[in-house]
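=== Per-residue structure ===
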Amino acid sequence: MKDLEVAYLQFNPAQALALTGFSQELANSGGPQACGVAQKANEYAEALRATLTPDQRTTLQRFTEGHLSALLFSQMHSPDDPLPEYLPCQSELEQDQGTLYLASRNQLLLALARYRAFAFDIDNDGKHVRLVANFKGGGTTQRPDEDRRRPVELSSHSGLRLGAHTEAPYNCSVIAHDGHSPAPSALILAARWNPAQEPTHIIPMAGIIERLGGLHALALTSCSFDFTRSECFVSGQGQAGKAVPILQFDANGGFSLRYNAYRFSLNDHASQAAERALDAFQALLMQAQPLPFVLQADKALLINNCRALHGRDTVMDNRRLLVRLFGYSPFARPLIISDDPLLVRG
């Protein structure tokens, strides 16, 4: 039985062919980081949208309006991209055409859902495209350059297990506040290589919030929680946060959640009600059965960052490489630094 919080959109052969051509054109133009590509992506999305069936349009609209936790795109063409013996270095992969193609396709799929691809100034060196892979160690298999005696950063650039989380920053969710842009509305992932069939896990949160109960949910909206600084932030930028809520009411989708199992804790001045609420919330998360999605190059997973948590187990095969982009919904109001490509203040 499929989870009602997750939807599936399969492209027909003609749509998949058009998507491939459009994505390649965007990649040839430089990909998501290049000026002018966002406008092209919007134009191509409009052309593709005209070919959608009524059911496909309804599915996309549900995600756009904030009523889905995740949307899996499938039946897309897989590029001819042989699996390497070893994962190439990060800088080489970032400039590679195979990466640019999947990043461009991700940007087009975001635009199809009426989302805008963007980057934070404080995160990922201000770049739109994030490569999710074990570049820094911590996986099941030791990297050739890895020193097991050294600590490994807890980020998507390591092979460590990543517990259930939404993406940082955690200061606000939809509207910019106190000099901070909101957290990403969504992220989209595609796998360039995933030889061990390692899943990305999704936990839809609507049912958990309902089971939590009114008083506990209300306590999670209080400014009673702290979070630690993300290792993905640019050196010298970004900071830890204190006295923030985990849960907020949101007219578009009903609620907005910001949480990280390995970064959030109770504030020193939190009430006992907030402490009980956090305990109950974490207990329900422990009981939750994450939904596994095994990504390959013919699929892309669009995750609602306000409505679902995601995570992964320890990386087993160091050649696993996912290509990620962040997206803002039509309702998001960030602090814009530059429009093309879209860069916002974190």
User: Anything to note?
Assistant: The first helix runs from residue 13 to 28. The two ends are 39 Å apart (CA to CA). The longest strand covers residues 186-193.
